[in-house]
Every structure is written in structure tokens, then in C-alpha cells.
Amino acid sequence: MRVVCEILEKEYGIHFSYSRELVNLSRKVTVTEYRQRLKGVLEEVFAPENIRFTRVGDQIVLQQIIRTTRTISGYVQDGRSGEKLPGATIYSPALKQGTTTNQYGYFSFTTVKDTNSLIVSYIGYEPVLLPVSERGDRIVMVSLQPVANLKEVVVNASDNKLQDETQMSKITLPLSAMQSMPKLLGESDVMRTLQSMPGVSGGMDGAGNLHVRGGSPDQNLILMDGSTVFNFSHFFGVYSLLNTEIVKSTDLYKGAFPARFGGRLSSVVDITLKDGDMKHYHGDVAIGLISAKVNVEGPIIKDKTSFIVSARRSYPDLVYNTMLRSDDDLGREGALYAYFYDVNAKINHIFSPKDRIYFSIYKGEDNFLLKLAPDTLPVPDLSGRVVESSRLKFSWGNTIGALRWNHIYNPRLFSNTTINYSQYSFLTEYGIKYGRQATGEQVDQNTTYYSRMQNTSLKMDFDYRPDPQHSFRFGGAVVGHLFQPGVLDFEEKENNIKPLDTTGSGLKVKGMEFLLYAEDDWRLSTGLFVNIGVHASGFLVEGRFYNSLQPRLGVRYMLPRNWAVKGSYTHMNQYIHLLSRSAPSLPTDIWVPSTQRVAPMYSRQVALGIAKTTRNNMFEFSMEGYFKSMYNMIEYTDLSATTNVELTRWDEKVTIGKGWSYGGEAMIRKQKGSTTGWIGYTLAWSTRRFPGINNDQIFPYKYDHRHDLEIILSQKLGKYWELSASWHFTTGAPMTLPVSSYSGIESPSPWDPGFGEESHTRDRYDSRYNYRTENVHRLDVGITYTKQKKYWRKSWNLSVYNVYNQPNPFYYYIKRDDAEKQRYLSKVSVLPFLPSITYAIKF
């Protein structure tokens, strides 16, 4: 500051008069002004340091102001529904400082007593001037009213600008972005919208996976109201697990992970669900071509207790059965059932201004059942058996529950205590009845495979805000894990024998995880901000205790013209692994813990970027480069070996290596006006190295998508119509192809195609990821008509997925021509040109 004063004395011909004992000018400040009046410059320099200036002739007299403080805290909510608003801005014009609400809508702002008012704002709502009374610390409830000229307010984002946030590598997904995207089979989707962001890929077309910065799907921590979700898809990835109408906010962290998150290497998807309207009853119903959904919310006790319930069910099985039975493809007693359902319910109760409690549950399941009737397969096979009937069933699903307690200890200290339960399981059954012509023997065989992953946790999070310069978070958790990755049962009912039975000895492992964290968002000077934190964790499994100390650092420095340069370093640890052989992640993939031989995975990531939001919040621009190294990655040593058997020795069938991913991302987003959308581009590399594979050399891995481009546009057409379009391009990824095949001995597993036969075909591989798949690109469009009636609002949506019918691959397989003794690489495309229509009403 002393140097600034010397410059001003020379520039304006003035002199500063002050007492060195009373006024401190030793602090470092950064001032950027152009053609500014002297008074404005002096205010910017001295006001943040509580220094009063008075002009006396050609002298400026400086006096240190001794100010007492008060803390204003409370909640910011929607004035119509009482829904809490995360990310709302509270700003002091006098101090030129501000803060934001946390994910529960709570804020704490410490200011001087002579501050007259604060400005509270949120996009889509009218700003409010909050008076600061002469009383001491107090808790307030700030209600914001929707902008008057909007029939319905869609929460878009906070008023925070990118350059004002120390956090980098984070994307806040507006609810409006999900709702305006072209819909696949009539459904808007969280995961598909996230896939359209730079640095994120979905892999094969039609898959709902997330590959973030070269990571695998199991390296994504997906949280739903704080509960871990292990599989976030329906219909093998075509749909997301969650009805978007119940989502309040979604944050994606691709790096620079805050210390409060841990347990995964590549990303965090933090989804917060709506709490329910405290004042009015309302809901919505939507009917599409293959699914329908309903949402209802309202007060149980007005302004005290609310509820929200959301349910969804698909019905392709009803359509399929009608069509297939009419053609007699399944036989007189055959049937095909393929559907999913999910249900969300949440209760929110206010005990007092300082205490509130939330209880939420989720249940979702996919079911696939194919029955073939006795008259469909009467021809004997090569072994002389006649199949009478067969049945194949797949089912998988999640069960999630959470109980949360918010408490305000004092205006500066907020806490959230959560008990979470999360379970993911899948069941596979195959039954067949057949008789042998030679002996007249009747056989009824049934094979069952079951797997389960379960978490129960207790977590406490504290949010302490001593002053606008600091936002301090800390907390801890205890998590109990139950792994049951394989229970296999094979029996012949007629003969009352079990040639293969692992029901009693199936692998079942328990583990305990412990964690503590602390992080501080700290303003060091006018232009320099840091977020520094540490995440410490431990994992106890089968007598082995792993521990990890994970430092986190984020830095932001303000440049001229409101540009921010940001940097970060992140260390992450992951104690669980996903066993998978296929490129797309499937429901049958198996979760297993670290063992004596296979240590936890961990990664280190550094990133550097720039960001800016224009002054009127019209445009956002960001660009980042990153480098991530990953350790203790696993890969199967033998790709031709069978899966899902001998799981007690799974760690002996994998090799342990390293991985690297690096690249750059750029994004420009238009947030306001009749035309909105974004353009995102990613240039990335993802490589691995494993002992004994590809001659121990580094090679491109299956998540290596070199180029990725997304163009998303939404255009309002008059009062009732909205047009949307998205175009996506992704470079093909490496995959492994066999170089030859041979006839092997009888298969030891009922899951292999050759089980029960004298021989079967096995493939031979000489290297991994020796072929790159074709590029994927697709255009989707949608148009929505919306009209407000007196008591309800109706809408029609017509969407076309894959407009120019590009045959993008979902998976590849080897096709065999026995006559020519040749094999060919073939692909399966599951989502061609696909129109859909949805009718919805909101009341």
C-alpha cells in the first residue's frame, strides 16, 4: 500500500498524512484502474483495510477505523415453495465482499456493524436488499421471489462468476440444460447431459457411462443426497437412474477435488434432490412412448414439513409381448419382460430455526426375463437332447436411504450429520428343461449367479465461516463395506444333485473405512485466493490396514479485465476395484476390495487454466490443461479365461500397472437470451503400462478418445416454442481383437457357450488394444411446445435421436463363417434414427 501511496502522490500532486503507529500501510494490494477519479481509487485501496481518508487542502489524512463486527446467517429460499437455494450470492457493496449459500441454502456473513444492508441475489429471482439492523448476531430467512415475467422459474445457476471461484475443473449443470436437451425416448437425462461437457465421454454410442479425463466408470464417485450410487443406469446405460424432475442441482468435479470428497480417482458427481414445496401442492405427469413418470410434492404441515415423491416405470415389455405373441415367435407359453422402475421419496421437517431433518429413500430396479415355450425348440441338438423350455433372467438395482440433520451451533458454525445406506445387487438366472432321445432321461437344470455391494456410513460435516476472507470446512466419517461379489449355484433338480455349488462358500468380505478432512478457502490478498485442504483415510480389510494422506491445493490469481488464472494439485485414493472385461461397463461387472496383493489405486493430478464470466453473466469461457498419473491399476492377465468363477483368487488373475492421462479442454457457454448453449472441445490421451502386456510398453488404453467435440444449442421461438439440437463427435477408442482361435477342451463353466459340449472355441491374443474402433458422431434435435393454462401447464416434446441415422457401434463381436472358415469383425448398433414424443402436464 505504501508504494501505491507514493505513486498517487506523484500522479496527483498530493501528500498522505498518517501515524505509522496507528495506520498500517505494509500490506500488499493490487490495483487496476483506467481513467478513474481519485476518490474511486482511494476507496478501492483503503476501504477493504478499514482506513478512512479525508482531504484537507492538498493533503489526504488517513485514519484507521476500529470496527466491531456482527454475523448475519440464515437460509435463502424460493419465496413461493420454500425450496432452499444453493449457490445464492450475499454481497456487501460497502466492503465489496460477498459469500454464497452452501448446498443446503445456508449462509454466514460476518460484516462490520456500520454496514447498512446486503444484497441477496440468484439467477431467475428478483434481488433483495437485506437490511442489517443494530442488533447483534442473528439468523434470518431470506425469501426471493421469481422474476415476474416468467410463467415458471427454472433454476439455472448462481450469480457467481467463474473468475470469482477458487474451485476449478468444476461444472455446475443447470436444470434447464437437462430439460432443454433433445430427449432420448422422451426422457431428459443427467448422465447424457454430463457427457456433453468437455473432458467427459460416454464411450460407445448408447452407453450411459462416464469416462472422465481418461478414467474408467468405477473411478467416478456419484452421490445422490450424499449417498454413494454404484450403478447409475437403466437399460444397460440407455437411461440414467434418476428422474431429472426431482433434481435440484448437479455439480461435476473433474479435478481439483475439495478435501471433503474422496474414494475415487477421476470425478465426483454431486447430485442434490429437491426438498419438497413447503407452501403449495403441485406435481407433474409425463407419458412417453415406452415410459411414464409422475412427481408430487407439497406441505404436510405448512411452512414446517414437506414431502416429494417421484416414480417412473417403463413398459416396453407390454409392447414387445403384444407384437411377438401376434407373430407366435415366443410360442404359446413364451414371454419377454424388459422394464425398469424407480421411486424417490423425501420428507423435510423444520424443528426450529436452528434444526431441520431430511429423510429420503430410493428404490430402482431393471428386469429382463425371456421365456421360451415348449413348442419353440423341438429339434434335437448335436448331443441328442431336445429342449422343452428355457428361461433367462437378469435383474439389477439400487436401494438407497439417507437421514440428515442440519444444525446451526452459532451464526458462524453450521453442521450436517448424515446416516447413509446404499446397496447395489444383480441376479442372473438361467434354467433349461430337456430330455435325451437315447435314454429318455429328463433333466431340469438351473444356474443362479448373485452379487451384492453394500455401504453403511455415518458422516459429520461442519461449515465454519469466521469472516468473508475464510470459508473453513471439516468433518469425518466411518463407512462399513460389505462385498459379496459372487454366489454361484448350479443344480439339476430332477436328479437332486449339485455338480457346482458355491452358495455356502461364496466370497463375502467386510471392510471398514475411516476418513477425516479439512479445507479452507482463503483470501491471501486482493488478487490471490487459495483453497488448501487435506483428506486422510484408512481402510481395514481382512486384517490389512491401508492408509492415505491426500493433500489438495487450489490457487486463483486475478488478472486485469477480470480474467482469473487457476491452478490445482490433487491426490486421490480408491480402495475398491471393478472387475470388467468389456469396454462398456455392464451391470454384471463385479466390485471387489483391495487385498494383500492388490493395493488401493491412487492418482495425482495437476491442472492449470483460465476462466472468465462476462460482466452481465451472458457468456462463460474456460480453458484447462491437466496431467494425471494413476497407480495400482489392474488388468486381467488372460482375456480368454472365464469370468465370475473362483473369485476368491481374482487378485491372482490380474496384473498391476500404471496409467497416465493428459490433455486440454475448452468451453464457451451462453447463459442468457433467447439463444443459449455451449461448445466444448477436448484433446486428450489415456495410456497404461502393465508388466507382461504389450512387451511392457506404454500403450493407448480403451478410454483413449483423442478428440471430442460437443455443440449444444437451444433457441426460444416466440412465447410457446423451444427448439434444441446437439451434435457430438468422438474419436474411436482402442479395443482388443484376437489374432486366431482354436478348439479347446470342455468348458469348466456353465457360463461359457461351449459348456456341456465336447469342445469349444477359444481365442488367442498377441497384444492388447491392437485395433481402434470407428469414430462416433450423431445429431439429435428436439422441439417443445409449452402453454400455460389457468390451473396447469401442458407441454408436448418431439425429439429425434440420431437424425441422419449414423450406425454408431454399441459393441463389436467376431462373426464366424463355418463354410468359408473365416471370421469377421461385426458391430451392433442399438440406437438408429429414433423419434419419440412425450406429453406432460404440470399442475
From TrEMBL:
Its main location: membrane. Coiled coil: none annotated. The keyword Transport applies. One of its GO terms (cellular component) is cell outer membrane. It holds the Pfam family CarbopepD_reg_2. One of its GO terms (biological process) is siderophore transmembrane transport. It is a multi-pass membrane protein. Residues 186-264 form the TonB-dependent receptor plug domain. The keyword Signal applies. One of its GO terms (molecular function) is siderophore uptake transmembrane transporter activity. InterPro entries: Beta-barrel_TonB_sf, CarboxyPept-like_regulatory, Plug_dom, Plug_dom_sf, TonB-dep_rcpt-like. Transmembrane segments: none annotated. It is found in: Cell outer membrane. Keywords: Cell outer membrane, Membrane, Receptor, Signal, Transmembrane, Transmembrane beta strand, Transport. SUPFAM superfamilies: Carboxypeptidase regulatory domain-like, Porins. This is TonB-dependent receptor. It comes from Chitinophaga solisilvae.
